[in-house]
Amino acid sequence: MHVHVIAVAGTGMGSLAGLLKSMGHDVTGSDVAFDPPMGPALERWGVRCLQGFDAEHLYCGPRGDSERPGTPTGRERRPAPDLVVVGNVCRKNNPEATAAFEANMDVTHIAGALQRLVFPRTSPLVVAGTHGKTTTSAMAAHLLEAAGRNPGFLIGGLPKNFSTSFRAPHLGPRRLTSDGQLRSQPFVIEGDEYDTAYFEKTAKFLHYQADVAIITSIEHDHIDIYPTEESYLEAFRRFVAGMPKTGLIVANAADRRVVDIVTKHAVAEVAWFALQGEETHGHSPHWLAAPVTSDAKGTLFELFAGGVACGRCTLAAAGRHNLKNALAAVGAVAQGYGARLDVLGSALASFAGVGRRQDLIAQPRGIFVYDDFAHHPTAVHETLLAFRQKHPSARLFAVFEPRSATACRNIHQAAYESCWGAADEIHLAPLGRELPADERLDTEKIAAALRGQGKVATAHRALDDILIQLVGRAQPGDAIALLSNGAFGGIHDKLVRALERQEPN
Predict the structure, then answer these.
(1) pTM score, two decimals?
(2) How far is residue 480's CA from residue 499's CA, in Å, rounded to a whole number?
(3) Quick check: 341 and 305 in contact, CB under 8 A?
(4) Which DSSP category does 139 fall into?
(5) Rounded Cα distance, 333 and 178, in Å
(6) Does the pLDDT of residue 78 top 50, yes or no?
Protein backbone atom coordinates (compact mmCIF):
# COMPACT_ATOMS: atom_id res chain seq x y z
CA MET A 1 0.00 0.00 0.00
CA HIS A 2 0.91 3.67 -0.29
CA VAL A 3 0.41 5.17 3.17
CA HIS A 4 0.65 8.92 3.74
CA VAL A 5 1.27 10.08 7.32
CA ILE A 6 0.30 13.65 8.25
CA ALA A 7 2.51 15.14 11.02
CA VAL A 8 5.06 12.36 10.61
CA ALA A 9 7.98 13.89 12.51
CA GLY A 10 6.68 13.23 16.03
CA THR A 11 8.09 10.33 18.01
CA GLY A 12 5.03 8.08 17.72
CA MET A 13 4.04 8.92 14.14
CA GLY A 14 7.62 8.73 12.90
CA SER A 15 8.08 5.30 14.43
CA LEU A 16 4.78 4.18 12.89
CA ALA A 17 6.01 5.37 9.47
CA GLY A 18 9.26 3.45 9.92
CA LEU A 19 7.38 0.34 11.02
CA LEU A 20 5.06 0.42 8.02
CA LYS A 21 8.01 0.98 5.68
CA SER A 22 9.81 -2.01 7.19
CA MET A 23 6.68 -4.10 6.50
CA GLY A 24 6.94 -3.34 2.79
CA HIS A 25 4.55 -0.41 2.41
CA ASP A 26 5.42 2.75 0.47
CA VAL A 27 5.30 5.58 3.00
CA THR A 28 5.25 9.34 2.55
CA GLY A 29 4.95 11.85 5.35
CA SER A 30 4.52 15.59 5.84
CA ASP A 31 5.37 17.96 8.68
CA VAL A 32 6.41 21.54 9.36
CA ALA A 33 9.97 20.53 10.28
CA PHE A 34 12.21 17.48 10.12
CA ASP A 35 14.69 18.24 12.87
CA PRO A 36 17.07 15.63 14.34
CA PRO A 37 16.77 12.98 15.46
CA MET A 38 13.48 12.07 13.77
CA GLY A 39 14.02 13.88 10.45
CA PRO A 40 17.26 12.10 9.52
CA ALA A 41 15.86 8.82 10.84
CA LEU A 42 12.83 9.03 8.54
CA GLU A 43 15.11 9.59 5.54
CA ARG A 44 17.30 6.68 6.63
CA TRP A 45 14.26 4.40 6.90
CA GLY A 46 13.18 5.32 3.37
CA VAL A 47 10.16 7.47 4.27
CA ARG A 48 9.71 10.30 1.76
CA CYS A 49 9.46 13.55 3.74
CA LEU A 50 7.45 16.52 2.43
CA GLN A 51 7.91 19.95 3.99
CA GLY A 52 4.84 21.72 5.39
CA PHE A 53 1.17 20.82 5.07
CA ASP A 54 -0.29 21.08 1.57
CA ALA A 55 -3.22 19.20 0.01
CA GLU A 56 -1.02 18.45 -3.01
CA HIS A 57 1.19 16.27 -0.80
CA LEU A 58 -1.57 13.67 -0.96
CA TYR A 59 -0.82 13.23 -4.66
CA CYS A 60 2.99 13.16 -4.59
CA GLY A 61 3.13 9.41 -4.31
CA PRO A 62 6.09 7.37 -3.01
CA ARG A 63 9.52 8.52 -4.09
CA GLY A 64 10.98 6.48 -6.93
CA ASP A 65 13.90 8.78 -7.70
CA SER A 66 16.45 10.96 -5.93
CA GLU A 67 14.22 14.00 -5.34
CA ARG A 68 15.02 15.95 -2.21
CA PRO A 69 12.29 16.81 0.33
CA GLY A 70 10.49 20.04 -0.53
CA THR A 71 7.27 21.43 -1.92
CA PRO A 72 5.32 19.52 -4.56
CA THR A 73 5.38 22.44 -7.02
CA GLY A 74 5.90 21.19 -10.56
CA ARG A 75 5.77 17.53 -9.69
CA GLU A 76 3.73 14.96 -11.50
CA ARG A 77 0.37 14.46 -9.79
CA ARG A 78 0.14 10.78 -8.82
CA PRO A 79 -2.75 8.63 -7.54
CA ALA A 80 -4.12 9.30 -4.08
CA PRO A 81 -2.68 7.18 -1.24
CA ASP A 82 -4.39 3.96 -0.25
CA LEU A 83 -4.48 5.12 3.36
CA VAL A 84 -4.02 8.50 5.07
CA VAL A 85 -2.95 8.48 8.73
CA VAL A 86 -3.63 11.71 10.63
CA GLY A 87 -1.40 12.51 13.59
CA ASN A 88 -2.80 13.39 16.99
CA VAL A 89 -1.28 16.89 16.86
CA CYS A 90 -3.34 17.77 13.75
CA ARG A 91 -6.44 19.92 14.07
CA LYS A 92 -9.51 20.01 11.84
CA ASN A 93 -8.12 22.92 9.84
CA ASN A 94 -5.09 20.93 8.68
CA PRO A 95 -5.19 21.30 4.87
CA GLU A 96 -4.10 17.74 4.14
CA ALA A 97 -6.55 16.14 6.55
CA THR A 98 -9.35 18.37 5.26
CA ALA A 99 -8.57 17.51 1.63
CA ALA A 100 -8.39 13.79 2.41
CA PHE A 101 -11.85 13.79 3.97
CA GLU A 102 -13.32 15.95 1.19
CA ALA A 103 -11.96 13.55 -1.43
CA ASN A 104 -13.42 10.56 0.47
CA MET A 105 -9.99 8.99 0.92
CA ASP A 106 -9.48 6.18 3.41
CA VAL A 107 -8.49 8.14 6.55
CA THR A 108 -7.53 6.83 9.96
CA HIS A 109 -5.29 7.55 12.96
CA ILE A 110 -2.27 5.79 14.41
CA ALA A 111 -4.37 3.28 16.34
CA GLY A 112 -6.50 2.51 13.30
CA ALA A 113 -3.41 1.98 11.14
CA LEU A 114 -2.01 -0.47 13.65
CA GLN A 115 -5.36 -2.22 13.93
CA ARG A 116 -5.55 -2.73 10.18
CA LEU A 117 -1.97 -3.29 9.11
CA VAL A 118 -0.04 -4.64 12.08
CA PHE A 119 -2.16 -6.50 14.62
CA PRO A 120 -3.82 -9.11 12.35
CA ARG A 121 -2.03 -12.47 12.70
CA THR A 122 -0.13 -11.23 15.75
CA SER A 123 -0.75 -11.51 19.48
CA PRO A 124 -0.64 -7.97 20.93
CA LEU A 125 0.96 -7.47 24.33
CA VAL A 126 -0.36 -4.08 25.42
CA VAL A 127 1.37 -2.28 28.29
CA ALA A 128 -1.08 0.16 29.88
CA GLY A 129 -0.97 2.41 32.92
CA THR A 130 -0.17 5.96 33.94
CA HIS A 131 3.49 5.24 34.71
CA GLY A 132 6.18 2.93 33.34
CA LYS A 133 4.71 2.07 29.94
CA THR A 134 7.82 2.76 27.88
CA THR A 135 10.28 0.97 30.13
CA THR A 136 7.98 -2.01 30.72
CA SER A 137 7.33 -2.33 26.97
CA ALA A 138 11.06 -2.27 26.27
CA MET A 139 11.64 -4.89 28.98
CA ALA A 140 8.93 -7.14 27.58
CA ALA A 141 10.35 -6.91 24.05
CA HIS A 142 13.84 -7.67 25.35
CA LEU A 143 12.61 -10.68 27.33
CA LEU A 144 10.63 -12.05 24.39
CA GLU A 145 13.71 -11.67 22.20
CA ALA A 146 15.84 -13.52 24.74
CA ALA A 147 13.22 -16.28 24.84
CA GLY A 148 13.40 -16.71 21.05
CA ARG A 149 9.93 -15.32 20.34
CA ASN A 150 11.14 -12.70 17.77
CA PRO A 151 8.65 -10.03 18.86
CA GLY A 152 7.48 -7.13 16.79
CA PHE A 153 7.14 -3.91 18.74
CA LEU A 154 6.36 -0.21 18.68
CA ILE A 155 7.75 1.66 21.69
CA GLY A 156 7.52 5.37 22.52
CA GLY A 157 11.23 5.67 23.23
CA LEU A 158 14.46 4.08 22.07
CA PRO A 159 14.99 0.68 23.75
CA LYS A 160 18.77 0.41 24.02
CA ASN A 161 18.77 -3.34 23.40
CA PHE A 162 17.47 -2.67 19.88
CA SER A 163 18.56 -0.33 17.09
CA THR A 164 15.13 1.28 16.56
CA SER A 165 11.92 1.91 18.48
CA PHE A 166 9.97 -0.43 16.18
CA ARG A 167 10.23 -3.81 14.52
CA ALA A 168 7.90 -5.55 12.10
CA PRO A 169 6.16 -8.64 13.44
CA HIS A 170 7.66 -11.98 12.50
CA LEU A 171 4.74 -14.18 11.53
CA GLY A 172 5.59 -17.68 12.64
CA PRO A 173 3.82 -20.70 14.14
CA ARG A 174 1.46 -20.29 17.06
CA ARG A 175 2.84 -21.41 20.43
CA LEU A 176 1.27 -23.04 23.45
CA THR A 177 1.39 -20.82 26.58
CA SER A 178 1.66 -21.92 30.21
CA ASP A 179 -2.13 -21.85 30.56
CA GLY A 180 -2.74 -23.92 27.44
CA GLN A 181 -3.63 -21.03 25.11
CA LEU A 182 -2.35 -20.96 21.55
CA ARG A 183 -0.98 -17.52 20.67
CA SER A 184 0.53 -16.04 17.54
CA GLN A 185 3.81 -14.14 17.40
CA PRO A 186 3.82 -11.36 20.01
CA PHE A 187 3.70 -7.67 19.14
CA VAL A 188 4.56 -5.38 22.06
CA ILE A 189 3.03 -1.91 22.17
CA GLU A 190 2.50 0.82 24.73
CA GLY A 191 -1.16 1.07 25.65
CA ASP A 192 -1.49 4.84 25.41
CA GLU A 193 -4.70 6.18 26.98
CA TYR A 194 -4.34 9.49 25.12
CA ASP A 195 -6.91 10.14 22.40
CA THR A 196 -6.45 9.09 18.78
CA ALA A 197 -7.26 12.14 16.60
CA TYR A 198 -9.45 15.22 16.43
CA PHE A 199 -12.12 13.31 14.52
CA GLU A 200 -12.31 10.38 16.98
CA LYS A 201 -11.72 11.23 20.60
CA THR A 202 -11.21 7.73 21.98
CA ALA A 203 -8.23 6.30 23.86
CA LYS A 204 -5.66 4.64 21.63
CA PHE A 205 -5.46 1.47 23.68
CA LEU A 206 -9.14 0.70 23.06
CA HIS A 207 -8.15 -0.16 19.47
CA TYR A 208 -5.23 -2.43 20.31
CA GLN A 209 -6.96 -5.84 20.56
CA ALA A 210 -4.79 -7.05 23.44
CA ASP A 211 -4.31 -10.76 24.02
CA VAL A 212 -2.07 -10.01 26.99
CA ALA A 213 -2.13 -6.75 28.94
CA ILE A 214 -0.05 -5.26 31.70
CA ILE A 215 -1.56 -2.56 33.91
CA THR A 216 1.21 -0.82 35.84
CA SER A 217 -0.72 1.91 37.64
CA ILE A 218 -3.69 4.27 37.36
CA GLU A 219 -3.42 7.88 38.52
CA HIS A 220 -5.28 10.85 37.03
CA ASP A 221 -3.29 12.29 34.12
CA HIS A 222 -3.79 14.02 30.74
CA ILE A 223 -6.15 16.58 32.21
CA ASP A 224 -6.54 18.18 28.77
CA ILE A 225 -8.27 14.99 27.58
CA TYR A 226 -9.70 13.72 30.89
CA PRO A 227 -10.85 16.75 32.92
CA THR A 228 -12.02 14.60 35.82
CA GLU A 229 -10.58 11.53 37.49
CA GLU A 230 -13.80 9.69 36.69
CA SER A 231 -13.39 10.27 32.95
CA TYR A 232 -9.81 8.95 33.18
CA LEU A 233 -10.87 5.85 35.10
CA GLU A 234 -13.63 5.16 32.59
CA ALA A 235 -11.07 4.73 29.79
CA PHE A 236 -9.33 2.01 31.80
CA ARG A 237 -12.64 0.34 32.67
CA ARG A 238 -13.42 0.06 28.96
CA PHE A 239 -9.94 -1.28 28.22
CA VAL A 240 -10.17 -3.99 30.92
CA ALA A 241 -13.74 -4.95 30.05
CA GLY A 242 -12.78 -5.26 26.38
CA MET A 243 -10.15 -7.94 26.98
CA PRO A 244 -11.28 -11.37 25.71
CA LYS A 245 -12.02 -14.27 28.04
CA THR A 246 -9.01 -16.07 26.57
CA GLY A 247 -6.77 -13.11 27.43
CA LEU A 248 -4.46 -12.44 30.35
CA ILE A 249 -4.20 -9.28 32.47
CA VAL A 250 -1.04 -8.87 34.57
CA ALA A 251 -2.09 -6.23 37.10
CA ASN A 252 -0.47 -4.28 39.93
CA ALA A 253 -2.01 -5.52 43.17
CA ALA A 254 -0.48 -2.61 45.11
CA ASP A 255 -2.43 0.03 43.19
CA ARG A 256 -5.91 0.55 44.66
CA ARG A 257 -7.41 1.93 41.44
CA VAL A 258 -5.99 -0.92 39.37
CA VAL A 259 -7.40 -3.48 41.79
CA ASP A 260 -10.82 -1.83 41.85
CA ILE A 261 -11.17 -1.64 38.07
CA VAL A 262 -9.71 -5.06 37.28
CA THR A 263 -11.69 -6.82 39.99
CA LYS A 264 -14.99 -5.32 38.86
CA HIS A 265 -14.61 -5.38 35.07
CA ALA A 266 -12.19 -8.09 33.91
CA VAL A 267 -13.50 -11.18 32.16
CA ALA A 268 -9.98 -12.28 31.21
CA GLU A 269 -7.71 -14.24 33.54
CA VAL A 270 -5.90 -11.97 36.02
CA ALA A 271 -2.40 -12.48 37.42
CA TRP A 272 -1.50 -10.01 40.18
CA PHE A 273 2.03 -8.76 40.80
CA ALA A 274 3.65 -6.87 43.70
CA LEU A 275 6.82 -6.36 45.66
CA GLN A 276 7.25 -8.09 49.00
CA GLY A 277 5.74 -6.03 51.81
CA GLU A 278 3.35 -3.99 49.66
CA GLU A 279 -0.33 -3.71 50.53
CA THR A 280 -2.11 -5.85 47.91
CA HIS A 281 -5.74 -5.00 48.74
CA GLY A 282 -6.81 -8.55 49.54
CA HIS A 283 -5.18 -10.23 46.54
CA SER A 284 -2.37 -12.76 46.75
CA PRO A 285 0.21 -11.91 44.07
CA HIS A 286 1.04 -14.67 41.64
CA TRP A 287 4.22 -12.77 40.68
CA LEU A 288 6.23 -11.47 43.63
CA ALA A 289 9.68 -9.90 43.88
CA ALA A 290 11.58 -9.66 47.17
CA PRO A 291 14.48 -7.16 46.95
CA VAL A 292 17.72 -8.45 48.49
CA THR A 293 20.20 -5.64 47.82
CA SER A 294 20.07 -2.36 45.89
CA ASP A 295 23.08 -0.28 44.92
CA ALA A 296 24.54 1.70 42.04
CA LYS A 297 24.86 -1.47 39.95
CA GLY A 298 21.17 -2.33 40.23
CA THR A 299 18.89 -4.57 42.26
CA LEU A 300 19.29 -8.19 43.33
CA PHE A 301 15.96 -9.84 44.11
CA GLU A 302 14.22 -13.14 44.74
CA LEU A 303 11.55 -14.05 42.19
CA PHE A 304 8.43 -16.00 43.23
CA ALA A 305 5.74 -17.40 40.92
CA GLY A 306 2.59 -18.81 42.48
CA GLY A 307 4.31 -18.88 45.87
CA VAL A 308 7.24 -20.92 44.54
CA ALA A 309 10.78 -19.53 44.74
CA CYS A 310 12.27 -19.28 41.24
CA GLY A 311 15.77 -18.08 42.15
CA ARG A 312 17.67 -14.84 42.40
CA CYS A 313 17.73 -12.33 39.56
CA THR A 314 19.66 -9.15 38.88
CA LEU A 315 18.17 -6.02 37.30
CA ALA A 316 20.60 -3.36 36.14
CA ALA A 317 17.95 -0.60 36.05
CA ALA A 318 17.80 1.22 39.39
CA GLY A 319 14.70 1.92 41.47
CA ARG A 320 11.81 0.00 42.99
CA HIS A 321 9.56 1.22 40.19
CA ASN A 322 11.80 -0.47 37.63
CA LEU A 323 11.79 -3.66 39.67
CA LYS A 324 7.99 -3.62 39.48
CA ASN A 325 8.16 -2.94 35.74
CA ALA A 326 10.47 -5.92 35.33
CA LEU A 327 8.24 -8.16 37.44
CA ALA A 328 5.22 -7.27 35.30
CA ALA A 329 7.16 -7.93 32.10
CA VAL A 330 8.36 -11.31 33.37
CA GLY A 331 4.82 -12.28 34.33
CA ALA A 332 3.36 -11.31 30.98
CA VAL A 333 6.07 -13.01 28.91
CA ALA A 334 6.21 -16.19 30.99
CA GLN A 335 2.50 -16.69 31.65
CA GLY A 336 1.23 -15.11 28.46
CA TYR A 337 3.69 -16.53 25.94
CA GLY A 338 5.16 -19.61 27.63
CA ALA A 339 8.73 -18.35 28.04
CA ARG A 340 10.99 -20.17 30.51
CA LEU A 341 11.68 -18.35 33.77
CA ASP A 342 15.36 -19.29 33.87
CA VAL A 343 15.85 -17.62 30.49
CA LEU A 344 13.95 -14.50 31.55
CA GLY A 345 15.81 -14.19 34.84
CA SER A 346 19.14 -14.21 33.04
CA ALA A 347 17.93 -11.74 30.41
CA LEU A 348 16.97 -9.13 33.00
CA ALA A 349 20.63 -8.54 33.82
CA SER A 350 21.31 -7.48 30.22
CA PHE A 351 18.42 -5.02 29.92
CA ALA A 352 20.13 -1.77 28.89
CA GLY A 353 17.25 0.62 29.50
CA VAL A 354 15.48 3.21 27.38
CA GLY A 355 16.55 6.59 26.09
CA ARG A 356 15.48 9.50 28.34
CA ARG A 357 15.00 7.18 31.31
CA GLN A 358 17.84 7.68 33.82
CA ASP A 359 19.94 8.42 30.75
CA LEU A 360 23.52 9.51 31.58
CA ILE A 361 24.26 12.00 28.82
CA ALA A 362 27.64 13.36 29.98
CA GLN A 363 30.06 13.49 32.89
CA PRO A 364 31.78 16.90 32.64
CA ARG A 365 34.47 17.36 35.30
CA GLY A 366 33.13 14.30 37.10
CA ILE A 367 29.60 15.73 37.45
CA PHE A 368 26.94 13.22 36.38
CA VAL A 369 24.33 14.82 34.12
CA TYR A 370 21.18 12.77 33.47
CA ASP A 371 18.16 13.20 31.21
CA ASP A 372 14.84 11.74 32.32
CA PHE A 373 11.26 11.95 31.07
CA ALA A 374 9.69 12.09 34.55
CA HIS A 375 7.12 14.88 34.97
CA HIS A 376 4.16 13.53 36.96
CA PRO A 377 4.84 13.91 40.73
CA THR A 378 4.70 10.15 41.30
CA ALA A 379 7.20 9.57 38.50
CA VAL A 380 9.43 12.37 39.82
CA HIS A 381 9.42 10.81 43.30
CA GLU A 382 10.30 7.31 42.09
CA THR A 383 12.89 8.53 39.60
CA LEU A 384 14.72 10.58 42.22
CA LEU A 385 14.77 7.56 44.54
CA ALA A 386 16.40 5.60 41.69
CA PHE A 387 19.02 8.32 41.23
CA ARG A 388 19.69 8.21 44.97
CA GLN A 389 20.24 4.46 44.64
CA LYS A 390 22.77 5.14 41.87
CA HIS A 391 24.50 7.91 43.84
CA PRO A 392 23.93 7.21 47.55
CA SER A 393 26.39 9.78 48.86
CA ALA A 394 26.33 12.44 46.13
CA ARG A 395 24.57 15.79 46.18
CA LEU A 396 21.56 15.29 43.93
CA PHE A 397 20.25 18.28 41.97
CA ALA A 398 16.70 17.93 40.57
CA VAL A 399 15.93 20.33 37.71
CA PHE A 400 12.29 20.19 36.64
CA GLU A 401 10.35 21.68 33.73
CA PRO A 402 6.54 21.60 34.20
CA ARG A 403 5.52 21.26 30.57
CA SER A 404 2.66 18.81 30.04
CA ALA A 405 -0.98 19.88 30.30
CA THR A 406 -1.21 18.11 33.65
CA ALA A 407 2.14 19.23 35.08
CA CYS A 408 1.47 22.91 34.35
CA ARG A 409 -1.83 22.87 36.22
CA ASN A 410 -2.37 23.01 39.96
CA ILE A 411 -4.23 19.68 40.04
CA HIS A 412 -1.12 18.16 41.67
CA GLN A 413 0.05 21.26 43.56
CA ALA A 414 0.26 19.46 46.91
CA ALA A 415 1.98 16.41 45.42
CA TYR A 416 4.67 18.59 43.83
CA GLU A 417 5.40 20.02 47.28
CA SER A 418 6.26 16.58 48.67
CA CYS A 419 7.82 14.46 45.89
CA TRP A 420 11.45 15.65 46.09
CA GLY A 421 12.60 13.77 49.19
CA ALA A 422 15.63 12.13 47.56
CA ALA A 423 16.99 15.42 46.12
CA ASP A 424 19.26 17.85 47.92
CA GLU A 425 18.56 20.84 45.67
CA ILE A 426 15.50 21.51 43.52
CA HIS A 427 15.44 24.00 40.65
CA LEU A 428 12.03 24.66 39.06
CA ALA A 429 11.84 26.04 35.53
CA PRO A 430 9.08 28.33 34.25
CA LEU A 431 5.86 26.64 33.11
CA GLY A 432 5.96 25.32 29.57
CA ARG A 433 2.56 26.78 28.60
CA GLU A 434 0.33 29.76 29.33
CA LEU A 435 -2.69 29.12 31.55
CA PRO A 436 -5.18 31.23 33.55
CA ALA A 437 -3.84 32.23 36.96
CA ASP A 438 -6.40 30.12 38.84
CA GLU A 439 -5.29 26.95 36.95
CA ARG A 440 -1.53 27.42 37.00
CA LEU A 441 0.91 25.36 39.04
CA ASP A 442 2.49 27.73 41.59
CA THR A 443 6.22 26.95 41.46
CA GLU A 444 7.03 29.74 43.93
CA LYS A 445 4.76 28.07 46.48
CA ILE A 446 6.44 24.71 45.83
CA ALA A 447 9.89 26.20 46.37
CA ALA A 448 8.77 27.91 49.59
CA ALA A 449 7.32 24.64 50.91
CA LEU A 450 10.56 22.81 50.12
CA ARG A 451 12.66 25.47 51.83
CA GLY A 452 10.42 24.96 54.85
CA GLN A 453 11.48 21.30 54.73
CA GLY A 454 15.12 22.35 54.91
CA LYS A 455 15.95 21.92 51.25
CA VAL A 456 17.61 24.30 48.82
CA ALA A 457 14.86 25.15 46.32
CA THR A 458 14.36 27.91 43.77
CA ALA A 459 11.59 28.74 41.30
CA HIS A 460 13.39 30.35 38.36
CA ARG A 461 12.05 32.84 35.85
CA ALA A 462 14.42 31.84 33.04
CA LEU A 463 16.48 28.83 31.98
CA ASP A 464 19.65 30.93 31.96
CA ASP A 465 19.19 31.52 35.69
CA ILE A 466 19.12 27.75 36.23
CA LEU A 467 22.33 27.33 34.25
CA ILE A 468 24.08 30.01 36.29
CA GLN A 469 23.04 28.37 39.56
CA LEU A 470 24.05 24.85 38.49
CA VAL A 471 27.40 25.87 37.07
CA GLY A 472 28.18 27.84 40.19
CA ARG A 473 27.16 25.15 42.67
CA ALA A 474 27.81 21.71 41.13
CA GLN A 475 31.08 19.99 42.06
CA PRO A 476 32.77 16.75 40.93
CA GLY A 477 30.84 13.76 42.23
CA ASP A 478 27.48 15.56 42.20
CA ALA A 479 24.55 14.30 40.10
CA ILE A 480 22.15 16.51 38.14
CA ALA A 481 18.80 15.09 36.98
CA LEU A 482 17.12 17.10 34.21
CA LEU A 483 13.43 16.17 34.33
CA SER A 484 11.11 17.07 31.44
CA ASN A 485 8.83 15.42 28.92
CA GLY A 486 10.05 17.87 26.26
CA ALA A 487 13.25 19.40 24.92
CA PHE A 488 13.63 21.63 28.02
CA GLY A 489 14.80 24.55 25.90
CA GLY A 490 18.02 22.78 24.93
CA ILE A 491 19.29 22.97 28.51
CA HIS A 492 21.04 19.59 28.26
CA ASP A 493 23.74 20.63 25.80
CA LYS A 494 24.03 24.13 27.25
CA LEU A 495 24.62 22.76 30.74
CA VAL A 496 27.20 20.20 29.65
CA ARG A 497 29.16 22.80 27.69
CA ALA A 498 29.01 25.28 30.56
CA LEU A 499 30.19 22.71 33.09
CA GLU A 500 33.06 21.68 30.81
CA ARG A 501 34.24 25.29 30.60
CA GLN A 502 33.91 25.99 34.30
CA GLU A 503 37.13 25.92 36.29
CA PRO A 504 36.87 23.86 39.48
CA ASN A 505 36.64 25.91 42.68
Answers:
(1) 0.91
(2) 11
(3) yes
(4) H
(5) 10
(6) yes
